[in-house]
């Protein structure tokens, strides 16, 4: 299997070589994705039941015991990204916390989203007080994060909700400080974690404090 090429933004973005770097995921870290997607599928007469850490397996027709066909769920997911990202609320405290970190660190958003969603995603970030450069990736995040981290002499922090992405960064860029965060309160109990390897902070004030402490920022 050949490697997925790295997103070109990884090399094109301006990253200050003498500032710490914070690389942050969008869905379920900066944005309450599950709630937004739930509202979207609700508009299609469907409902989400949050009883596992999954996406497509949580969509049901009202009254049904088995979840919707996965392919149908995937089509809804694509449609959500295409037409209506504004239904997603920003995670509480995310904008304020990142703004504080950005006083001393470079902030980069790294999201695995369909490429066609770039304009809508970029607008969502701006509209929600998150005016940071956007990298759209695909697949495990280790290699793009390693390439970003290589562009600064200072420390790098990486935040994601998904354990496979955190593990991938640990493998490809073991010097990067990893943090897990799960924005949706209902998903938190189901999210696979490894806090001994990737410290977990589910609220932004706690997360930002931990990042600032780890990166030795003054803006704590
Ligand atoms: Mg995510």
What is the structure about, briefly put?
The chain has helices spanning 9-12, 33-42, 70-83, 94-102, 118-127, 142-149, 163-172, 204-214; strands spanning 21-24, 47-48, 59-60, 106-112, 134-137, 156-160, 177-180.
What does this structure look like?
This protein has 220 residues and is an alpha/beta fold. The chain folds into two domains: 9-32 and 89-214, Rossmann fold (3-Layer(aba) Sandwich), CATH 3.40.50; 34-87, no CATH class. The protein has helices at 9-12, 33-42, 70-83, 94-102, 118-127, 142-149, 163-172, 204-214, and strands at 21-24, 47-48, 59-60, 106-112, 134-137, 156-160, 177-180. The strands form two sheets. Strands 5-4-1-6-7 form a five-stranded parallel sheet, with helices on both faces. A two-stranded antiparallel sheet has the order 2-3. Strand 6 (156-160), helix 7 (163-172) and strand 7 form a beta-alpha-beta unit. Helix 4 (94-102) packs parallel to helix 8 and helix 6 crosses helix 7 (163-172). The radius of gyration is 17 Å and the shape is globular. The termini are far apart. The protein binds magnesium ion.
Give the helix/strand layout.
Elements: H1 9-12, E1 21-24, H2 33-42, E2 47-48, E3 59-60, H3 70-83, H4 94-102, E4 106-112, H5 118-127, E5 134-137, H6 142-149, E6 156-160, H7 163-172, E7 177-180, H8 204-214
The structure holds magnesium ion.
Q: Mind describing the biggest β-sheet?
A: 5 strands, parallel
* CATH H-level superfamily of the largest domain: HAD superfamily/HAD-like
Q: What low-confidence regions span 5 or more consecutive residues with pLDDT below 50?
A: none
Please give the CATH class of the largest domain. Alpha Beta
- Overall CATH architecture of the largest domain: 3-Layer(aba) Sandwich
Can you count the helices? 8
Average pLDDT, rounded to a whole number, is 93
Q: Beta-sheet strand percentage?
A: 5-15%
Instruction: Assign the structural class, choosing from mainly alpha, mainly beta, alpha/beta, alpha+beta, or little secondary structure.
Output: alpha/beta
List the helices and strands in order: HEHEEHHEHEHEHEH
Q: Fraction of residues in helices?
A: 25-40%
Number of strands: 7
Global morphology? globular
């Amino acid at each position: 299997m050949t490697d997925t090429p790295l997103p070109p933004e990884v090399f094109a973005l301006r990253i200050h070589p003498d500032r710490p770097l914070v690389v942050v995921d969008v869905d379920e870290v900066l944005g309450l994705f599950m709630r937004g997607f739930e509202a979207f599928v609700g508009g299609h007469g469907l409902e989400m039941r949050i009883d596992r850490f999954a996406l497509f397996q949580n969509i049901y027709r009202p009254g049904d015991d088995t979840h919707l066909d996965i392919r149908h769920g995937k089509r809804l997911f694509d449609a959500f990204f295409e037409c209506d990202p504004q239904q997603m609320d920003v995670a509480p405290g995310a904008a304020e916390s990142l703004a504080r970190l950005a006083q001393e660190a470079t902030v980069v958003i790294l999201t695995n989203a369909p490429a066609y969603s770039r304009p809508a995603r970029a607008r969502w970030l701006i509209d929600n007080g998150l005016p940071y450069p956007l990298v759209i990736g695909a697949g495990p995040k280790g290699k793009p994060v390693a390439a970003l981290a290589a562009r600064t002499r200072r420390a790098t922090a990486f935040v994601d909700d998904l354990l496979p992405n955190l593990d991938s960064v640990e493998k490809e860029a073991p010097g990067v400080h990893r943090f897990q965060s799960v924005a949706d309160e209902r998903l938190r109990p189901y999210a696979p974690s490894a806090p001994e390897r990737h410290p977990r902070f589910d609220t932004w004030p706690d997360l930002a404090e931990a990042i600032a402490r780890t990166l030795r920022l003054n803006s704590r």
